[in-house]
Specification:
With 348 residues, this protein is mainly alpha-helical. It is built from 11 helices and 2 strands; from the N terminus they run αααααβαααααβα. Helix content is 67%, strand content 2%.
């Protein structure tokens, strides 16, 4: 089963690359570098479609199509397709060896379903012209893939699990849910190009309560940069998106730091707790730097990488924690049995 474990680890690493590179493609405005799907102007590669790409670029030099952008977009598709084949192989191996403890065939099957839907979202991202809801869903799908592969990797490598009380389990699960909500807010901020709607820090437009239009900001079914009525999205809506992400960062960051601190104080989970605290602090610093430095591309891509790292860490924490075994109804713990036996021998 070493092959299965290696494939899972390779897929995990490749997923991290695909997620971060996908963010780079979007942030460099190359998401429509090839305006069709799955090929580029019906061809296998931008090299074969060079005439069409150069013609489109000549007609609109400031448009989304150029040879460098086309290669970025197609490289992302090649990597994603390779990942899909790798995950399919993992699922096949998981079912072939389903009686072994290191596999989890149902999780692997769910992963195949996520990847298929992720491929459709990738198609719709292009054909529906970067609709914010589709692009945000595509980001969440990539991180869901990363989360499931992290779980499979922990199981395949036999990572030790630590028994804890139910409240610890619920705290870890709540942290994972809050993290995905915050990532969704971050994705919504990025896909609506609202990252620089507030250019000052810690205030926004000089205020802690900036004027904001939350109604138009979080209307899901609409075109990029437009309201549901087809009008241009106002600055107050972009401000609402940005400010919601910032406030979410305060709340979720506090929750994750509290979990990390609690874990760091327990010897079996100290390493995970320290790693979580460090990752949260670095992510916060990168987010602040993106605002102060006007969103340089490398830092913006690093912010997505930081989100991916947090997903891996919080999923691994959830895996490492398992509920304490509860005694069966009517059973007596061993220590209590020995105590009762001793009393009976020395009784009246």
């Amino acid at each position: 089963m070493r092959l299965y474990g290696r494939l899972v680890l390779i897929a995990l690493a490749l997923t991290a690359v695909v997620v971060v590179f996908g963010a780079y493609v979007r942030l460099s405005d190359a998401g429509l570098g090839c305006p069709d799907w799955p090929g580029c102007y019906g061809q296998l590669s931008p090299h074969h479609a060079a005439d069409d790409i150069l013609g489109a670029h000549a007609a609109d030099p400031n448009g989304p199509v150029s040879l460098p952008k086309a290669w970025k977009e197609m490289l992302h598709r090649y990597l994603a397709a390779s990942l899909g084949l790798l995950i399919l192989a993992i699922a096949v191996l998981a079912w072939r060896h389903r009686t072994r403890g290191e596999t989890s065939p149902w999780v692997a099957t769910a992963l195949v379903g996520v990847v298929i839907f992720q491929g459709l979202l990738g198609k719709w991202t292009v054909t529906l012209l970067l609709k914010p809801a589709i692009v945000t869903g595509h980001l969440l799908g990539g991180l869901t893939t990363l989360a499931l592969l992290t779980w499979l990797a922990m199981r395949a490598t036999g990572v030790r699990r630590n028994p804890v009380s139910a409240r610890w389990m619920w705290a870890a699960r709540a942290a994972l849910l809050l993290l995905f909500v915050q990532i969704a807010l971050g994705g919504w901020t990025s896909t609506n190009y609202a990252a620089l709607a507030c250019t000052d820090f810690p205030t926004c437009h000089g205020s802690l309560w900036p004027e904001a239009d939350y109604g138009h900001a979080f209307h899901v079914v609409r075109e990029l940069g437009m309201t549901a009525e087809g009008e241009l999205l106002p600055l107050t809506a972009l401000t609402a998106i940005h400010w919601a992400h910032r406030m979410g960062a305060v709340l979720v960051g506090t929750a994750l730091l509290a979990l990390g601190w609690a874990l760091a104080r327990r010897v079996p989970t100290a390493g995970s707790g320290v790693a979580l605290i460090a990752a949260v602090l670095v992510q916060v610093c990168i987010g602040i730097a993106n605002v102060v430095l006007s969103l340089p591309l490398p830092l913006a891509a690093m912010h997505n990488a930081g989100a991916a790292l947090l997903v891996v860490l919080v999923v691994s924490i959830n895996y490492r924690l398992r509920p304490l075994a509860q005694p069966a109804a009517g059973s007596v713990p061993l220590a209590q049995m020995l105590q009762l036996s001793s009393r009976s021998r020395h009784g009246a």
